[in-house]
Amino acid sequence: MARITAGLTTSHIPAIGAAIDLGKTQEPYWKPLFEGYDWTKSWAKENVPDVVILVYNDHASAFTPELVPTFALGCADEFKPADEGYGPRPVPVVHGDPDLAAHLAESLILDEFDLTLMYKLDVDHGLTVPLSLVYGQPDEWPVKVIPLAVNVVQYPPPTGHRCLRLGQAIRRAVQSYGEDLTVHVWGTGGMSHQLQGPRAGFINSEFDTAFLNRLVKDPEGLAKIPHIEYVREAGSEGIELVMQLIMRGAMGPEAEELYRFYHVPGSNTAVGHIVLRPADA
């Protein structure tokens, strides 16, 4: 039986990828941010899963503003880094697990989640920056990755409740897979931030901290937050936080917090990161 043994959340700020790619990680501005991932890098070397189900959002790279699926599952053998307007990031091609992805697609659709199945998908910084933060700059990524893209770009995005339930359905799907695999689930995006308008640069550290606390201890209550509260308290791009609830749902009812890091600023946003272990892992 396949099993989920860990989950993590992290911001996926594009400037982080640029800092890594341009060799700026030790500059005074960036050094404290990257040091916050040292624990996770060490932990990840000792806890390498067979597959990571990586929840992220596309930034008009694979999907245009005219066509944005609510949930899109990557079912291909590989996923190339996307050209985001200045060329693709110099990172390895992401290798998928089409067999597990096919099982997830069947299980989740029969569980009444309407997925878009992607057999060709270029992945942007939303997916590659988290991989770089955890695994550095390898010649090949040490894990297979199944991308799960979530619409948090065009209104209306899915609710926190729907995302938590999707995570729970992913847990059931993984546990019903016959092959002996270890799986991690990553929920990326956030924390509070706004990229435009009068509140550009908005960061709400109090809300971010409360969100992370409730993500661990009160996911059901957290899932009830309406869209307007995310906009008000976390900025217009803070809605990305609902993707972290997919990860949390996949952990089961109880989860142990192994590590947490929070830093302001990372570019014009807050950086939030947490590592969890399911109680039954």
Protein described:
The chain starts with a strand and ends with a strand. The strands form two sheets. An eight-stranded mixed β-sheet has the order 6-3-7-2-8-1-10-9, with helices on both faces. The protein is built from ten helices and ten strands. The chain is an alpha/beta fold and 281 residues long. The protein has helices at residues 14-21, 31-35, 38-46, 98-110, 125-135, 160-175, 205-217, 219-222, 227-234, 242-250, and strands at residues 3-10, 51-56, 71-74, 78-79, 94-95, 116-118, 144-150, 182-188, 255-266, 269-278. The longest helix has 16 residues, at 160-175. It has one domain: Protocatechuate 4,5-dioxygenase, Chain B, CATH 3.40.830. α1 packs across α5 (125-135), α4 (98-110) crosses α6 and α6 (160-175) runs parallel beside α10 (242-250). It is globular and about 50 Å long.
Write the layout of secondary structure elements.
Layout: E1 3-10, H1 14-21, H2 31-35, H3 38-46, E2 51-56, E3 71-74, E4 78-79, E5 94-95, H4 98-110, E6 116-118, H5 125-135, E7 144-150, H6 160-175, E8 182-188, H7 205-217, H8 219-222, H9 227-234, H10 242-250, E9 255-266, E10 269-278
Parallel strand pairs: 1-8, 2-7, 2-8, 3-6
Antiparallel strand pairs: 1-10, 3-7, 4-5, 9-10
Helix pairs in contact: 1-5, 4-6, 6-10
Taking all Cα atoms into account, the compactness measure Rg is: 17 Å
Largest sheet: 8 strands, mixed
Describe the strand arrangement of the main beta sheet, using strand numbers. 6-3-7-2-8-1-10-9
Number of domains: 1
Q: Report the end-to-end length measured between terminal Cα atoms.
A: 13 Å
Secondary-structure class? alpha/beta
> Poorly predicted ranges (pLDDT <50, ≥5 residues)?
none
State the fourth-level CATH superfamily: LigB-like
Q: How many β-strands, per DSSP?
A: 10
Helices and strands, in N-to-C order? EHHHEEEEHEHEHEHHHHEE
Query: What proportion strand?
Result: 15-25%
Query: What is the annotated CATH architecture?
Result: 3-Layer(aba) Sandwich
How many helical elements? Answer: 10
- The CATH topology is Protocatechuate 4,5-dioxygenase, Chain B
Helix content: 25-40%
Shape: globular
